[in-house]
Amino acid sequence: MIGEILVFLPGWNEIVKCTQLLEIFDRPPHPTLRKVILSRSISERCITINDLVYAIDSGRTKARRADRTQSGECYRLFTRCNQRFSFVDFPQGEMITSRLDKIYLQGKLLNVNNVKAFLQNALYPPSIEPIQHAEQFLYDIGAFISHTNQLTPIGKILPQ
């Protein structure tokens, strides 16, 4: 399969070491070469990378990092026995457990056309109710003009 590779590493030091090792093979971009993305597990909560086909998990990572438009594979560098007894589950994504008014407002500031759809396309999307609650709250405090859905001056300074 053609696609990108995402490697989850436990911390910054491991990312730096792996980057140095990969620099040995650094070549100009070519259609048959793959992009390798090194990341800490924190990024798994909030991003989806297009064309991602392979995830390499150095600890415990969900296989769903692969692009949702194609099948992907996850290679784990530990045994099932280790996984069962050594790891605790990751906490739920922040968008599921937090209020969404700040995130919704930031989406508006970034000129996201449909913030509801944008949030529902997140890796761990919140349900529609918290999104609607955030939208209503921001209307109620005067951050939006209801009929145009445009930010008011208050809405522009709230995130600061």
UniProtKB/TrEMBL annotation:
Keywords: ATP-binding, Helicase, Hydrolase, Nucleotide-binding. GO terms for cellular component: nucleus. This is Uncharacterized protein. Coiled coil: none annotated. GO terms for molecular function: ATP binding; helicase activity; hydrolase activity; RNA binding. It comes from the Eukaryota. The keyword Methyltransferase does not apply. The lineage of its organism: Eukaryota, Metazoa, Spiralia, Gnathifera, Rotifera.
